[in-house]
Write a structure and sequence with these properties.
6-stranded parallel beta sheet; alpha/beta; Immunoglobulin-like; about 35% strand; 4 domains; binds zinc ion
Length: about 450
């Protein structure tokens, strides 16, 4: 019997590929790495029985985590330590608002709009370091892990914006001929230069001895040569002279239907300013009620109070009786207010109206009434200039154009307007100025005035 000798080589834990340190970017997935471990020697190595792990890794927090692995085989054991580093290697970012890189020439007090943000540390705006070098600015920020971000931007020193300039006083100024034009000036400011009112240059002249329209220009330049200007219109007018009995004179009769109303006092103020007398064909309908004092004022100021209609309802054209009932009612009302019996009338719709056909049962009421009113001592007036303010026209400019485009060299113009329309009242001042500047005289209608009768259509 022989005893064989078995040669046993030294046995121990065999560890391969074990990492003492693992680096991990925060928020990435952590995976255990226990390496390759077996028990035995290089000829024969068997799996260990178990691996026990201690420690944890929080990948959401930057830091170092110690993990220990204990490998066990039968009664033997080996412990190895591993450091897991959760790191932040992402640079923060800086955003610069482009508009804040604009600055006035030589501006010292620059105020850049910058935001800095780091994915891990959050808002770092108050950590940004700003370095200005001539026309460049560098912004630098570092996060807590030492990741640095730096950006350089050009500073745009320039002033390209025009200054602002505004007139003091009204854009249109009226000066009576031989009166005084007072220069009220203007104000100007510039984004870079501030108040530059003192640099305003005024050009243009007003000859107050000559009726006409003058332009004054106010121009200002900032220190970067950006300029801006505004103009003022100065109208030198003459007052109307209604006692002008010159037979060659062309006369304008301004007439206003359907009032009085909320704008009639404004109209009376304008007429007074130019010493123009006009004619009001009044009613007692709708909004015109409650303006008796305005009728009285117009009368006292020398305007003619004509009669239009008490109701302004076209059903008055049913018959002579219904028409005159309405006419006498407004006549009485005017007499009660002014003490004067007016016999100057205007038919609602004018004498040429066709609306009366809808009410008169074919009796040709307008042909009848035009004779009957004369027989009863009235005088009716139509018009030969329409402002259009009862139709399509709804702007002062257009009312003005409609009127002045209708004026020519005839001896008399009877103009139809409605003083219950503000845009129409607003056109009157320019109509007067135009008329006075072009040799017209304004007069109120009287029993002797031209009637501008229309062709009858019913
Ligand atoms: Zn009317």
């Amino acid at each position: 019997m022989s005893l064989g000798i078995i040669l046993v080589k030294d046995e121990d834990f065999q560890v391969k590929d074990f990492k003492d340190t693992i680096e991990l970017v925060y928020n990435s997935t952590y995976q255990e790495d226990i390496g390759n471990v077996c028990y035995g020697n290089k000829d024969k190595c068997v799996d260990v029985d178990e691996v026990c792990k201690e420690g944890f890794v929080d990948t959401t927090k930057v830091g170092e985590y110690k993990i220990s692995y204990t490998y066990k085989y039968k009664d033997k054991s080996l412990t190895k330590e591993q450091i897991v580093k959760v790191i932040d290697n992402v640079k923060p970012v800086i955003e610069v608002e482009d508009s804040s890189l604009k600055a006035c020439p030589k501006e010292k007090d620059l105020n850049f709009k910058v935001k800095a943000y780091d994915e891990y540390d959050g808002d770092l705006t108050d950590q940004v370091i700003e370095t200005i070098n001539d026309d460049k600015v560098t912004f630098k920020v570092s996060d807590k892990s030492g990741n640095v971000y730096e950006v350089t931007k050009d500073i745009n020193y320039s002033d390209t914006g025009a200054p602002k300039i505004a007139l003091k006083g009204d854009a249109t100024v009226y000066v009576v001929v031989n009166g005084t034009y007072k220069e009220q000036g203007a104000e100007a400011t510039d984004d870079c230069d501030g108040d530059i009112s003192s640099k305003i240059e005024i050009s243009g002249k007003v000859d107050t001895s000559t009726v006409g329209t003058y332009k004054i220009t106010y121009k200002v330049k900032d220190s970067s040569n950006n300029s801006k200007s505004v103009t003022r219109t100065v109208k030198v007018y003459q007052k109307n002279n209604s006692s002008n009995n010159n037979n060659t004179s062309k006369v304008i009769y301004l007439t206003f239907d359907d009032g009085p109303g909320p704008y009639t006092n404004q109209l009376l103020d304008i007429l007074k300013k130019y010493n123009v007398k006009a004619t009001f064909f009044v009613t007692n309908q709708g909004i015109t009620k409650g303006y008796d004092d305005v009728i009285l004022r117009a009368y006292k100021e020398g305007h003619t109070i004509g009669l239009h209609s008490m109701t302004h309802n076209y059903s008055i054209y049913r018959s002579s009786e219904t028409y005159f009932e309405d006419l006498y009612a407004i006549q009485e009302k005017v007499k009660r207010i002014t003490g004067h019996t007016s016999t100057i009338i205007r038919f609602p719709g004018g004498s040429s109206n066709t609306v009366s056909r809808s009410y008169d049962n074919g009796t040709k009421i307008m042909s009848k009434l035009t004779k009957e009113v004369e027989a009863k001592g009235f005088k009716y007036f139509d018009w030969n200039v329409s402002s259009g303010d009862a139709g399509q026209t709804t702007s002062s400019k257009q009312v003005y154009k409609n009127i002045i485009n209708s004026l020519g060299s005839k001896s008399s113009y009877v103009v139809l307007q409605h003083d219950i329309k503000k845009y129409s009242v607003d056109a009157v001042e320019d109509v007067i100025i135009y008329g006075l500047a072009n040799g017209y005289t304004f007069k109120p209608l009287t029993m002797d005035s031209p009637t501008a009768h229309h062709h009858l259509n019913n």
